[in-house]
Each structure stands twice: as C-alpha cells, then as structure tokens.
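Dear H.,

Thanks for agreeing to be a second pair of eyes. The structure we're designing against is below in token form, covering all 346 positions.
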C-alpha cells in the first residue's frame, strides 16, 4: 500500500470486483445514454465481460485477462466486430473505474484486440456513378452524396431545420429507435414489453431526446455536436419541389412514410436501391452508408481540403473541429459547390 501511494499517489481498491463495478457503471450511464448504446453495453457486459472477468478484482486485471476475454469470445465463434464492441465496452467500464480512483490504469485501453481477418472494405460510388445518381434529381440522395450526412440525421431532418432562402440546413438531431418497458408493472402477462397495453417508452432522464411516436426518438447526433450544412442550388430546388408535394406530416419531417410516420433505416436503404436502379447504377447491396464514404472519397479526389469537407460531414471530433468552427460554414459551402461542379463536369 505504501509503494502504491508513493508510485501512483493512491492506494488501489482491492475489494471491488468487475461484477460490482459493472453494475455501478451501467446504473450511471443509464441516465444519459442513447437507447441502442445502453442496450449494447448491457448485452456485452452480460454476455462477454462478466462470464470471464466478473469475479476478478478490478485493480488486479492484467493484459492476460483481457486476452482471455477475447479468446473466450472467439471460441464461441464471434467475429472481429463483436469482439471489438465488447472490448470498447470494457474500455468504457474501466475508464469509469479509473475516474472513480478504483484502478490506476485502464488496462483494456492499452491492449486492443487483434484482428483475425482483414478489415471490411467500405464501398464508395465512383465519380461516374455519383454523377448518374445526381442526375436522378432526388433531394435525399443529392444531399447525402454532397454532404455525407448519416441516415439517422437525414431521416430526422425537419422542414424547420432548413432555410431554403439562405441554402443551409441545421443538423441537430438523429432518428433512432427506443425501447419499451411495461407500464402495468408486469401484470399484463405479456412477455415482451412492446406488447403491453400500457407500454411506455424508456428515455434516460439526462438524455436530450424528443419522442415522436412508437419507438421513434430524436436524439442528438453522434458526438452530440450539431452542425450547419450548406445546400447547393440544385438541392434547394429539389427540396422546394418536395415541399410543394408534401403529404400529411404531423412531425414536420422532410422524409417520412405516406402516413406521416418516421422512416426506418430499412426504408432508407430500399429508397437508395430504387434510386440507383433508376440511375442505371448496378451496385447490389449498397446502403446509405456508402454515400457517406463516397462523400469523403470524392471530396479528396476533387482536391477539397480536409478541414472543409470534414466540417460538413461531422467526421472530426469536437476538439479537433473547435479551432476551425468559425470558418467551416463558408469553407463547407465552397466544398459542397466544388464537389457538385466536379462530379457533374465532363
């Protein structure tokens, strides 16, 4: 204890086991986490962390313990993505322990899992394919291709977020699915909370969210940072046409189902498939996330500075973006217009 005090300035807690630490951490993050994030945390803790490390004293964890967890998951046939997800959960868990001065170092952060197969290669549209997609004249795909916005951000976009006169859109929300809880106290006899006649949506008390309907929630975008996205003249024209033809729309969403309810990621991917077929682009299995990769790839080939195009797509961390935030709006506008001109040029 004296050596610990002299070397690291504290005496380590050798009474808290990983199982107890995990329970305290999950209770803490439940107050502010997005529904999918919290569900992933709970799943990884229950299925991957506790079976191997639950009885270990947190302060006594070693790199060998971390590798044992990875190995146990691989023996169950789990792939690199699942192992990496469980590892990120453990890193967050131990970072909580470090902040609470239960451990001195986050041993998991220093020992990332090894990959057993090559990383999945993300696909991007070619310049010719991008040009064909732009020719379809659909604001959903024009905006995605020229700004790199995420599917959830596009599906959360409301008409009140768009200034067609100035040609800008404010990306302040992302559409996600929440989880249900029994509102009856368990007396309805239904196993699934979603089938409970008195079901209620679960929203963390400290989570900034707007409940639209059913499972659909608006939450802050990734990294919690809103951003302004410039719109080209073509995008503005396409949005005006869309606004004029809008059907009943109780939530004010730019893109929604025919009954006005929010769209899902599956709806979005199906819409992209239709648009690609209309454009004559043969890319089976393409998803909306391809357009985010296409935005970055084509921007780099167009010679647009990273500081300009990353500010539009929101790829940079808040810390990295802060020094440039005042110039990103004008640079982003130039980046979007330059990309549109470059893609459509001979």
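And this is the sequence the design step returned. I haven't edited it by hand at all.
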């Amino acid at each position: 204890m004296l050596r610990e005090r002299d070397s690291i300035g504290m005496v380590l807690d050798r009474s808290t086991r990983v199982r107890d630490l995990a329970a305290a951490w999950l209770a803490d993050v439940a107050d502010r986490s997005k529904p999918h994030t919290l569900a992933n945390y709970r799943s990884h803790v229950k299925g991957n962390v506790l079976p191997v490390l639950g009885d270990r004293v947190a302060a006594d964890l070693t790199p060998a313990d971390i590798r044992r967890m990875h190995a146990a998951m691989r023996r169950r046939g789990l792939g690199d993505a699942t192992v990496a997800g469980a590892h990120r959960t453990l890193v967050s868990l131990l970072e909580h322990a470090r902040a609470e001065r239960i451990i001195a170092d986050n041993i998991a952060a220093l020992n990332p899992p090894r990959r057993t197969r090559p990383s999945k290669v993300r696909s991007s549209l070619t310049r010719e394919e991008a040009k064909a997609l732009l020719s379809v004249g659909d604001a959903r795909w024009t905006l995605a291709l020229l700004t790199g916005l995420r599917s959830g951000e596009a599906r959360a976009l409301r008409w009140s977020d768009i200034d067609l006169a100035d040609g800008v859109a404010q990306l302040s929300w992302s559409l996600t699915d929440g989880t249900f809880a029994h509102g009856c106290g368990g007396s309805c006899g239904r196993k699934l909370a979603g089938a409970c006649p008195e079901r209620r949506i679960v929203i963390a008390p400290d989570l900034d969210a707007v409940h639209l309907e059913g499972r659909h929630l608006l939450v802050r975008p990734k990294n919690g940072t809103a951003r302004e996205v410039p719109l080209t003249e073509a995008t503005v024209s396409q949005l005006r046409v869309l606004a004029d033809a809008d059907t009943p729309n109780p939530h004010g969403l730019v893109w929604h189902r025919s009954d006005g309810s929010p769209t899902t990621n599956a709806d979005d991917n199906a819409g992209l498939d239709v648009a690609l077929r209309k454009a004559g682009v043969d890319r089976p299995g393409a998803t909306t996330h391809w357009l985010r990769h296409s935005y970055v790839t084509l921007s780099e080939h167009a010679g647009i500075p990273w500081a300009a195009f990353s500010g539009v797509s929101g790829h940079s961390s808040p810390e990295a973006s802060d020094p440039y935030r005042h110039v990103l709006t004008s640079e982003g506008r130039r980046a979007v217009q330059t990309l549109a001109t470059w893609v459509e040029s001979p």
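Two observations from my side: Confidence is low (pLDDT under 50) at residues 317-328. DSSP finds 14 helices and eight strands in the chain.

Warmly,
E.
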